[in-house]
Design a protein that fits this description.
Length: 201
């Protein structure tokens, strides 16, 4: 099964609220979600990397919630739908942001300069990272508050607002544990599962 097929299978089996079908149609036919990279140079910097990363975050989040019965131990219950939404859709902000190109890199073995594939960032809708994902999702379907907060703050301390000294992230993590769990799943997917997965680095 391809990554796209797996994504669609999880999406259609778990996400059933009003507007989900229109959102999936948008992802399939009206944007580059299934061909976009996950980053310009680092993790998943290859065609289809964004879909792969979204699936990796989903599997990391499911694994975390199942491990050691974390939901039962802490009295936290998340529906399969909420888990799929926050994991599969947290990085919608990256659609339409990467432009294919090439750059020159010196081949250490030959000493010759060679053109290699590259991506550059051209964000035509600079609305923030998590904020933009929430905005794009809610054009099609409504999010629960905890889902929106989790997606908004999934970058954790890497978020520009947090780096700028905003304390809202602390309150978000205190009130909505799903946001913490999504951030942990995103970190694991990015830095462990997708380490050295860039085709252009």
């Amino acid at each position: 099964m391809s990554s796209k097929e797996e994504f669609i299978e999880i999406f259609t089996s778990c996400i059933t609220r009003d507007g989900a079908d229109k959102l999936l149609d948008f992802l399939e036919h009206k944007c580059d979600f299934f061909t976009a990279p996950a980053s310009a140079r680092y993790h998943g910097a290859y065609e289809g990397g964004l879909c792969d990363h979204s699936l990796n975050v989903y599997h990391c989040l499911v694994d975390y919630l199942q491990r050691e019965r974390v939901q039962e131990l802490y009295g936290l219950e998340y529906s399969d739908e909420s888990i799929a939404i926050v994991a599969l859709l947290h990085d919608l902000c990256k659609i339409g942001c990467y432009k294919k190109g090439t750059r020159n890199v010196k081949n250490d073995a030959t000493g010759q300069w060679e053109k290699v594939p590259s991506y550059s960032v051209e964000d035509l809708f600079p609305y923030g990272h998590g904020e933009k994902s929430v905005f794009l999702i809610e054009r099609f379907m409504k999010l629960k508050v905890e889902e929106a907060v989790a997606i908004r703050w999934h970058m954790g301390g890497f978020d520009d607002a947090a780096k700028g000294g905003c304390f809202a992230i602390s309150e978000a993590y205190d009130k909505y544990p799903l946001a913490v769990k999504l951030h942990i799943a995103d970190l694991k997917a990015t830095y462990l599962m997708e380490h050295r997965t860039s085709a252009v680095r």
